[in-house]
Amino acid sequence: MKYIDLVNIKHGTDSVRRFSKGNTLPLVCVPNALNMFAPQTDSSRGPWFFHPADRSFEGVRLTHQPSPWAGDFSYLCFLPEVDRLYVDPALRWSGFRPEDTVLKPNLMSYELLRYKTKFKLSPTDTGAIMSVDASKCGGKPLFAVIPFNFTTEIKVDRDNKLVYGYTCSLTEAPRNKDFKIYFAFKFDCDIVGEQTMPVGDKAHALAVELAEKVYTVRISASFISVEQALFNLKRELEGKSFEEIEASAEKSWEDILSRLEIDADPTMKRAFYSCFYRAYIYPNKFYEICPDGEKYHVVPETCEIKKGVAYTNNGFWDTFRTVYPFYSIVTPEKLEEIIEGYINIYDDTGVLPRWLTPSEVNYMPGTLIEAVLADVVCKGLVSEKLKLRIYDAVTKNVEFISEEFRVARKCLREYKELGYVPYDKCRESVNETLDSAYGDFCISVIAEKCGRHDVADKFLKRSKNYANLFDKETGFMRPKDSQGNFKQEFDEFNWGGDYTEGGAWQNSFAVHHDFEGLASLYGGKQQFLDKIDKIFSTPPYYVVDGYPLEIHEMTEMAAVDLGQCAISNQPSFHFPFIYAQFNEGEKTYNVVKKITDKVFSDSDGGLAGDEDNGTMACWYMFAVLGLYPLCPGKPEYVSYRPLVKSGLLHTPNGDIDILEKIKGKHKVCHFDLTKV
What distance in Å separates the CA atoms of residue 20 and residue 556, rounded to the nearest whole number? Predict the structure, then answer.
């Protein structure tokens, strides 16, 4: 059996702006690739440029989009056309038959009915190989490279059968207008003609007429230079057939997917491995191997080229919860390089990233890369040298004052003085406070592992600050002003304003590091669990006040019979597992089974909400395996009765039966499950 055959790369793509069932793209790429490829079916929807119900094809899109809410960067389209170059998507699109289309992690294959042309594409780390058969077209075979309306330059080198150039396509970040992606298309037949056409007022598209109707084009892209794009092409694609590239990409995925072998019903199995694929798309590499054999990356803010690795397309507020804890079990060897990439970015910019795409875009509260870093440190997954670099970064970043709130912690002065972030100084103040308290715990873990016990004690004490916003009368975390007064207007169902993508119900329990302490605020375990019960029994009411409009997470919560547990979004991810933390594992099992049965499947719309860089995917895999990382930064997982029949983890040191190891446990050791 090939695990790749269980993957539906359209999983989660049956989404629209107002209701998410994943908000994903069918990305054809190798794991954690620098460059990715997707079919563009209708760009009139902006970032939602693919939908599985579409019957139109506008081109293959070179993409780096981590989420439709973040948008794409460094992107362009290319496709075979016939006789005449068409640029406008409304004019160039072709119909296709979905039943004749193949979309797999390692393969994209379409037959374009309008152009009587078939093509297939298979990816490498920096590019792809594309085989085109236009033998039935009856006209002149063209290959079009179509940028978007950003500063672009495209040139043709007929002697070397090349089309090359750059585009500056970017969305919100980086703000450096000179940030470019360079590309090269090398054909295996002669170029005998050219056509150009403007794209808006900043760019021109170009189509080359080819001497043959059946041809191969090798494609590569670089953030460093055209010369580097050509080197990437030579290193990865030169002298290799389509079949060799396709097989290599398949092997890359099989090596990952085969790490964890489950036995489950067919739908769950397909959903599981579709999620497994999702988990290893992001973060993306943001470095390249240059001719001297060294690794280099571009600093997007300055366009400087620096030695060393880097990674991008990651929102740590999302991914700390499930992605990195999953990597720590399944592919722990990947984490050293990924974490080094983030620390290199700290060295480049002076601050730790919050949300990278490719540079800092300042989405979401907190600086929860602290949790990612604490998790790898407490599990011993990084070298001593990198651990000390991590300590230096987190202890300096936590003192960085960001006057414009673009980086580092918000309202740090007030937080240090008052023990909370006041609502009259900062939006989403409740989440900023709770995330800061948890981040303090994570810094204490790192400091302790580095032998800085005084620093560890300081931040551990500060991690109790979450209690400063607890209102015993209502049983919720509530915003306070700078004078220490609770905000007078309070509605437990009101979303936004003082809370992030939720209200008091969704955001009052983000005390990952100290649930026992949180329970004591309620009067003890039973009173606390009674409150957790009410999350699932309170009707899914919501008030649109803190936001100017209904956000899709509200609609999604109301569509599922889980009360105030908005499982489509990260703040509610841990709710079912709190029961297991207090030895009520059967309650966790019952809630998890209800969720997975109700809102997860192997279909194109088979996710509960925004997938967000692997977070929803890893949530599902943990959920059905029967263990969950309730507190990244502690080397443990809560466990309960699994939904799968078996789960076998294949490691270099032998196989581990996960279900046998967690049987009857409520807390388990970290990734090395042999120690359970």
Answer: 8
Please give the pLDDT value at position 360.
85
Note the pTM of the prediction, 2 decimals.
0.97
pLDDT for res 402: 79
How far is the C-alpha of 578 from the C-alpha of 565, rounded, in Å? 13
> What angle separates helix 615-625 from helix 266-279, to the nearest 10 degrees?
140
| Domains: count for the chain | 1
- What pLDDT is stored for residue 175 in this prediction? 64
Tell whether 70 is covered by a domain.
yes
The whole-angstrom separation of Cα 116 and Cα 57 is 13
**Nearest residue to 69 via CA among 13, 8, 9, 24:** 24
CA–CA gap between residue 202 and residue 192 (Å, rounded) = 26
Q: By the 8 A CB rule, do 498 and 429 touch?
A: yes
Tokens encoding 5 = 């055959």
Residues with Cβ within 8 Å of 30's Cβ and at least 6 positions away in sequence, in order, are: 105, 106, 123, 124, 125, 249, 252, 253
- Pairing between strand 59-63 and 162-167? unpaired
Place of tokens 């809370």: 499
Contact 224, 209 (CB under 8 A): no
Residue 60 DSSP code: E
Whether the Cβ atoms of residue 16 and residue 267 lie closer than 8 Å to each other: no
Q: Where are the beta strands (DSSP E) in 363-434?
A: none
Residue 409 within any structural domain of the chain: no
Domain housing 99:
25-243
State both tokens at 410. Answer: 């918000």
Query: Rg (Cα) of the chain, in Å, rounded?
Result: 25
CA nearest neighbour of 106 among 2, 181, 13, 262: 2
- φ/ψ of 145, rounded to 5, equals -115, 115
Would residue 384 count as lying in a domain? no
> Which are the contacts of 659, defined by CB distance < 8 A and separation ≥ 6?
625, 626, 642, 644, 646, 647
Residue 66: give its domain's CATH number: 2.70.98.10
Residue 63 belongs to some domain of the structure: yes
**The two three-digit tokens of residue 26, written as one number:** 């069918």
Ranges of the chain whose pLDDT falls below 50: none
For residue 229, give the nearest of 185, 188, 168, 183 by alpha carbon: 183
